[in-house]
Amino acid sequence: MSDFPSIPIGQRRDEDVALDLMKFVAMTTGYGKASGPGPGFQGSGTPVRAEDYADHLLQLYTRCLETVKGKK
Asked: For residue 25, with 0-12 CB atoms within 10 Å meaning exposed, 13-18 middle and 19 or more buried, which class applies?
């Protein structure tokens, strides 16, 4: 007697899959963050504002969702 619709085990919403994909890409690539000092020719590592970082993540999520839904 649950208020939630019955979803068979093993099936996930596109939004959930896109969110996991976004997290994976963002964490493994540092997507949207400024690069820190390191080997090679890199910038000074200027800090990214929180609003800019959030915008980058939202854009990445949108791209992931479109990919999962097969729109691209």
From this structure: middle
